[in-house]
User: Which sequence fits this backbone?
């Protein structure tokens, strides 16, 4: 898909068609990393987890010896039954 680099104030910018952003799973306002590699401009999303994920897959990535610490919530504030 062809587009043009346009001048915006003191900078230059590219407008991305909705279809391209949808295919790349990038949304408006999302941070991206821009670099030049071998004469090409490369744009990558900054966020580590992209798209949908399942709890099962995330739990499989946890270390087997992981034990969460306890949180001190303080004394009861009402009629809680602990």
Assistant:
């Amino acid at each position: 898909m062809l587009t043009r680099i346009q001048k915006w104030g003191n900078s230059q910018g590219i407008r991305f068609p909705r279809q391209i952003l949808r295919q790349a799973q990038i949304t408006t306002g999302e941070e991206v990393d821009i670099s030049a590699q071998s004469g090409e401009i490369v744009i990558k999303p900054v966020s580590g987890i992209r798209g949908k994920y399942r709890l099962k897959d995330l739990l499989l990535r946890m270390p087997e010896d992981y034990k969460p610490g306890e949180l001190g919530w303080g004394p009861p504030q009402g009629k809680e039954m602990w």
